[in-house]
């Protein structure tokens, strides 16, 4: 049963990747209209692989809402599932020796956690439920939130490079000038991607994939960075845009996912851990004291 769940999840993500390959549109390239998926009743955000699954389904069907709940939750709150609507399966992990249940535990360890599917319906599939109005966040405030978030990161970030990359030798993120990006969202998305690589360093999360993915470790690190960037910018209320320069990795991703049903769950778990790490750093930093200039203007010279 467990293997079937992993296989179904993997096939759903593979189909989403293949379906968007010609447009470089991956299931994690979400717009601000959907945002980070969360439970409509409890407000709790879905995480890791479940975020990816719900984004993929929202993109496939065209849902405009990022709010989801179980059949029972909708019914208990006055909602009625529209006739003919089908649920979306996501994953739940439960500790074998403990109660209560634990939602969205990543990188489940065999023998310690029990995984099973549970089913959600999107708010677009429901009638009779009184949705709470969500105030619009002005674009200026949204971008300022991103500036504050990235300004709070303790990483060394140098702008003026010809390309975006993380250099492990100097432990520094290099970025092209802000003005060279087609939109602020594109800049923040790429910066989140490179900062994810920074989180993988030994003194941070020590993310070594060589034992699990061998020769495909580099491609899988790129997949983790893609997912973590999407999780991070969704946390900031921004869109994650397609990147044509990642097209060469698609074949490697599909090959690894096709041969290992657990690979996408592992990648999403590592990506969630990286995004959480960046969020925790931003929450714990005194941004006003750390950096006085915007990240889009800051330039740190290499010593």
Word description of this protein:
This protein is an alpha/beta fold. The chain has two domains: 2-127, no CATH class; 139-287, no CATH class. Helix content is 42%, strand content 13%. It has ten helices and nine strands. The strands form three sheets. Strands 1-2-5-4 form a four-stranded mixed sheet. Strands 7-9-8 form a three-stranded mixed sheet. Strand 8 (165-167) and strand 9 form a beta hairpin. Helix 1 (2-20) packs across helix 2 (48-61) and helix 7 packs across helix 9 (263-284). The protein is globular, with a radius of gyration of 20 Å. It starts with a helix and ends in a 13-residue tail after the last helix. The model is unreliable at 98-110 and 286-303 (pLDDT under 50).
Order of helices and strands: HEHEHEEEEHEEEHHHHHH
Helix count from the secondary structure assignment:
10
What's the overall average pLDDT, rounded? 81
The counted number of beta strands is 9
Which shape, going by the Cα principal axes?
globular
Sheet having the most strands: 4 strands, mixed
Query: What's the alpha carbon Rg, rounded to whole Å?
Result: 20 Å
Measured by DSSP, the beta-strand proportion falls in 5-15%
Helix fraction bin: 40-55%
The total tally of domains equals 2
Provide the low-confidence segments as ranges.
98-110, 286-303
| Helical/strand content category | alpha/beta
The strand order across the widest sheet is 1-2-5-4
What separation lies between the terminal Cα atoms? 55 Å
Protein name: Zincin-like metallopeptidase domain-containing protein
Domain Polyvalent protein metallopeptidase: 144-269
Pfam families: ArdcN, MPTase-PolyVal
Domain N-terminal: 4-106
């Amino acid at each position: 049963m467990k293997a079937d769940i992993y296989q179904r999840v993997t096939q759903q993500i593979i189909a989403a990747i293949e379906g968007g390959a010609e447009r470089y549109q991956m299931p994690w390239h979400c717009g601000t209209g959907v945002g980070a998926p969360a439970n409509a009743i409890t407000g709790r955000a879905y995480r890791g692989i479940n975020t990816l699954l719900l984004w993929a389904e929202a993109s496939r069907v065209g849902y405009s809402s990022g709010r989801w709940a179980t059949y029972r939750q909708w019914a208990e709150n006055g909602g009625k599932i529209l006739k003919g609507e089908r649920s979306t399966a996501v994953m739940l992990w439960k500790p074998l020796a403990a109660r209560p249940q634990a939602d969205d535990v990543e990188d489940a360890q065999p023998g310690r956690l029990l995984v099973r599917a549970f089913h959600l319906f999107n708010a677009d599939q429901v009638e009779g439920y009184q949705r709470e109005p969500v105030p619009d966040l002005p674009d200026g405030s949204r971008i300022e939130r991103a500036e504050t978030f990235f300004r709070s990161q303790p990483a060394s970030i140098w702008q003026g490079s010809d390309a975006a990359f993380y250099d492990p030798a100097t432990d520094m993120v290099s970025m092209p000038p802000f003005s060279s990006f087609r939109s602020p969202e594109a800049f923040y998305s790429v910066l989140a991607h490179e900062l994810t690589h920074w989180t993988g360093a030994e003194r941070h999360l020590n993310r070594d994939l060589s034992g699990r993915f061998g020769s495909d470790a580099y491609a899988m690190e790129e997949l983790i960075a893609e997912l973590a960037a999407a999780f991070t910018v969704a946390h900031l209320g921004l869109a994650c845009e397609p990147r044509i320069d990642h097209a060469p990795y698609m074949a490697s991703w599909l090959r690894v996912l096709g041969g290992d049903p657990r690979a996408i769950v592992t990648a999403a778990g590592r990506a969630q851990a990286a995004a959480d790490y960046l969020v925790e750093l931003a929450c714990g930093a005194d941004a006003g004291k750390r950096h006085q200039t915007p990240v889009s203007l800051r330039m740190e010279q290499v010593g």
